């Protein structure tokens, strides 16, 4: 799993409660992914199985990033248009 792609969101006092919760959810889920990755490194599994797990973990990281960015973008649009 590529750790370079791991991005941590930080909340500010101006963030909505929803964004703060999303930040916490993303960080918690990334922690779960890291735990799975660490456990997989300890298991004596064939290279093919490890590769499949790594691909799945990378995909999970990409999905988290995509949705985090969508929510951030949506929040930025609402804030700049004054709908909040």
Structure in a nutshell:
The chain is an all-alpha fold and 84 residues long.
Taken in chain order, the helices and strands follow as: HH
Number of helices: 2
* Beta fraction: under 5%
Helix content: over 70%
Overall, the morphology is elongated
List its salient traits.
2 helices; 84 residues; mainly alpha
What does this structure look like?
Helix 1 packs antiparallel against helix 2. Helix content is 73%, strand content 0%. The radius of gyration is 16 Å and the shape is elongated. The chain is built from two helices and no strands. It starts with 16 loop residues before the first helix and ends with a helix. It has 84 residues and is mostly helical.
Chain-wise SSE layout:
Layout: H1 17-42, H2 47-81
Helix pairs in contact: 1-2
